[in-house]
Structures are given as C-alpha cells and as structure tokens.
Amino acid sequence: MTDLTRMTAAETAATIAAGEASATEVAQAHLDRIGAVDEKVHAFLHVDTEGALRAARAVDDRRARGEELGPLAGVPLALKDIFTTEGVPTTVGSKILEGWIPSYDATLTRRLKDAGVVILGKTNMDEFAMGSSTENSAYGPTGNPWDLTRIPGGSGGGSSAALASFQAPLAIGTDTGGSIRQPASVTGTVGVKPTYGGVSRYGMVAFSSSLDQGGPCARTVLDAALLHEAIAGHDPLDSTSIDAPVPPVVEAARNGDVRGMRIGVVKEFAGEGYQAGVMTRFNEAVELLRELGADVVEVSCPSFSYALAAYYLIAPSECSSNLARFDAMRYGMRVGDDGTHSAEEVTALTRAAGFGAEVKRRVMLGTYALSSGYYDAYYGSAQKVRTLITRDFERVFGGVDVLVSPTTPTTAFPIGERADDPMAMYLADLCTIPTNLAGNAAMSLPCGLAPEDGLPVGLQIIAPAMADDRLYRVGAAVEAAFTARWGHPILEEAPTL
Ligand code: GLN
C-alpha cells in the first residue's frame, strides 16, 4: 500500500471513503510517524493517541453504517495549542497554563470534530503566539524539517513542522501578524490567513483581538481550501465573526486560473534586507503569473513602511489587556499561595514565574503605550497608521484583483541567531503584517528553493476582505504550474528524517 502519511488530505479522505484504508489505519500510521520522528522535530506538545483513535473509529463506524462522510472525514490534523480542546491540555506554549485542561471546545475544535477530522494532538508555538521562530515556547524550540538546526517559523512552528515532516496532512494556525504565513513560507507548505472574522475566535486564546485570526495550514492549496471551508463561517459566540456566506474557496482551488486577472506587485516589499535568492524565486513567480495570462503591474503602498511600527504598538497594547486574565485565580499555575502572601502578591509572583521574557516585554510595552498621557502619542497614532494602511489597500484593490510579494524577506534562519535581538525577529513579518492591520486575506505557498541555501521560499498572495476565494484561484494555478515545472511537489526535495 502507498505510504498513508505521504498522501494529501483530499487523497486520504477519498481512500477512506472508498474503503481502501480505514480511518483507524490512517490515524495509526500518523501516530507511528510521530513516534518515529517527533523526538527530533518537536512539533507536538501533546499527542492525543486515545482521542485520535476514538475519533477515527467513529468515522469507520459511520462508514460501516453506510452514512455519507464529509470531505475531510478521517483526515488527521495537528492543532495549534492555542485552541481549547475539551479534556485535552491547552498551554498556548506558556508555563502559566501548564496542566490546564479546558472544559470546553473552541468553535474551531468543535467544527473539526463535526467534520470527522482526527485531531492527533496539540502543536508547539511561541508563548501566547508572540514570535516568529517558536523559540519563545516555554517548552523548547521546534526544528525545521528541512534543516533541524533552523527555525520552522513562528508562532505556529509546530504546525508547519508537523506538515513538512509528514506527521499530519493538515494543521491549524493563527495569524496575528504572520504566524500562519511565515511558518508556511519557511517550511515549503501552504498557509492561509482568512479575512478577519472569517473563522471564529471563540475558544482561541486571545493575543491581540483585533488582529488574531485562525486559519488552515496544509501541503497543497486544495487541502487548505477544504480545511478552510470546514472551519469558516458565522459563529454567534464570537461578536466579530462575519455573518455572511463563506467565499467559495474549494471551488476556486479546483479551478486555478489567472487568465485575465490583474495582479499587483507591491513595490515596497523589496530592497534592503531581502535575501537575493528569495527575490530570484519571487521574480520567477511573477514571470510565471505573466506566462499564465495574468496582467501584472507594479503598485505602491507607501504606508506599509509604517506597518511594523504600528503593529508593535497595537499588538502589545491589546495583549497587555488580554493577558490580565492570567491572574493565578482562574487558570493554571499559582505561585505563593501559602498563606503568607496577599492575593495581589500571588498574582504578581505567578505572572513573574509563569510568563517568559517576550511576553513580559510586550505586556510592559503595551501598558506603557496605553497609559494616560501617552495614549494619543503611541496607541492613537498607531491606529491612525492602521487607517492609512487600510486606505492603501483600498486604493490599489481598485485597480488589481490580488497583490503578490515574497512572504518573508529571508529563508529559515538558524535557531538562536535572532533569539536575543527582538528587532531582527520582528523583521520576519515585514510583508505579512499590513494584511492583519487591514483585516483582509492572504496566503503563502511555495515558489521554489533559494539557490544559496536550498531552503523554501514563499510567495504571498493578498486579496481584499471577503475575497478569500481569489487566493485559492491564483494559488492553485501557481501550484499546478510550479509542480509541473519541478516534476513533483516541493516537499519531495526535503531531506528525509
Ligand atoms: N511574529 C509576530 C509577533 O511576534 C506575529 C505573531 C503572530 O502572528 N501570532 O507578534
């Protein structure tokens, strides 16, 4: 039989539906793969063997009863440890939530279960999703399957590494400033940040509520679309959830075509700091889009230059408020509760012990930016920049259907290289952040390997809000053309673990 861990999600579901393999066999093959390689990769913080096999058996039972199975029934998935899972630990990569077992499922978790998706476990991440390398996890770093001494991106590095090492065909990420797209870019996988409000945030631990967005991660554009459709749609439990039909992402992914589309290349996403090989592959992708029949033009979004600065005021401000709930009284860790300390002291001792350095840095920055007297100068100004960025998008989307850029300025950097330099770390999200600030949609998909280091390069496609289907239409066309050119999917180039 073909190796069950090498199939796409769409192939896996078809194999199960046809009875060529059971969902239990598929789950077991992935659990075995995790057992064989995850000691090296460290993609998972928690593997839910029992839960996965139970979910797989339920799919097999439904099939035996002749019930119709959904498009992802029996397909294994790696879930970022930021979504609550009833009865299964949820740490958000932080010591402060170590040992916490949620009593409820996030809406996204529930939808996955309802779709018959088999959740294998929870994946490693930067603490509270703050980071671009997964080195900020309280539980140790994750390795990039292309080179285990390099970062798999962040904050969702566990999810991207699980995909690239064939431990799961599907994964979930969250993207506040790039944490789905940047990990996808540096691991040769596909990641989509849906339109803000497109996927429910209920039960997704909040970092920066006006920016956070859960979304699909996969090895192919079609798989990402199938997962997108399963998790998206209105949720009355999330007041920012969009009450409108989900854009037709699966149909778009099945009909990749860029003929007649107008595509804008963002002028500002190039120049100093961009690795030569990244630009080589990106420029080839632009050429390919032309060959495929798109009308490619250069566009300028001058406000994007201020996006990073605005983001690093808005995100810390919101996190300083969101993380106030970790007060030692409600969840997880409690330090100093020995009768000699006041409640306030217990809160302070717990936060001092439970939060890592990056989380503390952001809580302090955010508290300062929001303090009276500074609010207008910092937070208020950042919100004005946010409006300018949104206007830049609106203006260029008047003339083009989608925008393209490199997803990240460089390929995967070595673990440790930027760990003590927050600014260098923040630069990894230069091209992804404007989309979060404006609330529209974007995808990263592989566009080859950088000649100088042989590591994956990501192509970012950006669409207007609620036009997520355009990402898939363009992405599927690019993926098909590149796969034909390379003769195989890019991940076949990755060294075997
Ligand atoms: N790297 C960015 C940050 O550190 C984005 C993180 C994210 O998208 N969750 O905030």
TrEMBL record:
Pfam families per UniProt:
Amidase
Q: Which keywords has UniProt assigned to this entry? A: ATP-binding, Ligase, Nucleotide-binding, Protein biosynthesis
One example GO MF annotation: glutaminyl-tRNA synthase (glutamine-hydrolyzing) activity
Q: Where is the Amidase domain?
A: 25-471
Q: Which residues form the active site?
A: K80, S155, S179
Taxonomically, the superkingdom here is: Bacteria
Q: Into which family does the record put it?
A: Belongs to the amidase family. GatA subfamily.
What is the species of this protein? Streptantibioticus silvisoli
Q: What is its EC number?
A: 6.3.5.7
Enzyme type, top EC level: ligase
> Record's GO cellular component, any one?
glutamyl-tRNA(Gln) amidotransferase complex
Q: Which HAMAP family match?
A: GatA
Q: What sections of the sequence does the record tag as coiled-coil?
A: none
What does this protein's UniProt record list under function?
Answer: Allows the formation of correctly charged Gln-tRNA(Gln) through the transamidation of misacylated Glu-tRNA(Gln) in organisms which lack glutaminyl-tRNA synthetase. The reaction takes place in the presence of glutamine and ATP through an activated gamma-phospho-Glu-tRNA(Gln).
User: What processes in GO biological process is this protein linked to?
Assistant: translation
As its record notes, the protein acts as a catalyst of: L-glutamyl-tRNA(Gln) + L-glutamine + ATP + H2O = L-glutaminyl-tRNA(Gln) + L-glutamate + ADP + phosphate + H(+)
What name goes with this protein? Glutamyl-tRNA(Gln) amidotransferase subunit A
Mind telling me which SUPFAM superfamilies this protein's record contains?
Answer: Amidase signature (AS) enzymes
Q: Which residue ranges traverse the bilayer? A: none
